[in-house]
Amino acid sequence: MSGSKASGGKASGGKNTGRQSSDGRGKQDAQHAASPDGHSRTRLPKSFYEKELLRLQTEMVRLQEWVRAEGARLVVVFEGRDAAGKGGTIKRLAEHLNPRVARIAALPVPTERERTQWYFQRYIEHLPAAGEIVLFDRSWYNRAGVERVMGFCTPEEHQRFLRQCPIVERMLVEDGILLRKYWFSVSDTEQERRFRKRLQDPTRRWKLSAMDLESITRWEAYSRAKDEMFVHTDVPESPWYVVESDDKRAARLNMLAHLLSTVPYGDVAQPDLRLPPRPPSTGYERPPKDLQTYVPDHSATLADRAD
């Protein structure tokens, strides 16, 4: 596809405004966020967000059952800058799904052996079989992003990836895999705000690394790498879909709704399950509690404090 679409960072044509920039520099108000068309709008109230999220999650369960019954194979790629909201969206998407059907692939740093393999080899091992969904929390596009910017691959390896990637993805699609690729776009000011929040939150500090923080000083390098990646890999067979994610609630709803709209799923007949009547007792007696080791009642101590 044309470079104008990539550099603008939008899934379709349109005018960028000064209020937001897809992976460019821009500032958002605390109470407003940019919609996909670039216009500012009021943040969705939490009650409305939670209601719509539950509806979409229910639809995701329907989609899951269709995938399982039809033997379909669905791959969803989540990419974007650090703190762009990928992990939170994946968490909500998979929250009510069967882990035997839908699994998350978040690969660690490659081993010495994996570094000598064909680059795509270790990712192919995680592709779904019939009736499965795989959510890639980052993917083979590491080579076009962090590896390119941080110098973890050579220029020749990077260029080889850009040539091979569309070919590999065409092969996946031709074989019947449903491939969806989402780029989560966040402004520099919002990314920095989320970084600072993670630094102060002991339950989320693990999400930060020295490499994540270095992305602040390499913002434009990552922007150029992303634009070049889009030029080569935003192809008709496997297009990129950009999710504006300065507003996390809107990003999650937009991404889930779009994914559901692109898969031709339908209702699957469910077995008629009914609870059987409980049979009468045959004289079984539970062993005394002092013969077993129980977990201490921590919650009772909290109740005592509350009193």
Q: How is this structure best described in words?
A:
The chain has 307 residues and is of the alpha/beta class. 43% of the residues lie in helices and 12% in strands. It contains 12 helices and 7 strands. It has helices at 3-8, 46-70, 86-94, 112-115, 121-124, 146-150, 155-174, 188-200, 210-217, 219-233, 248-262, 298-306, and strands spanning 32-34, 40-42, 73-80, 102-105, 132-137, 178-185, 240-244. The strands form 2 sheets. The chain has a 5-stranded parallel beta sheet with strand order 4-5-3-6-7, with helices on both faces. It has a two-stranded antiparallel ribbon with strand order 1-2. A hairpin with a 5-residue loop joins strand 1 and strand 2. The longest helix has 25 residues, at 46-70. It starts with a helix and ends with a helix. The model is unreliable at 1-22 and 26-31 (pLDDT under 50).
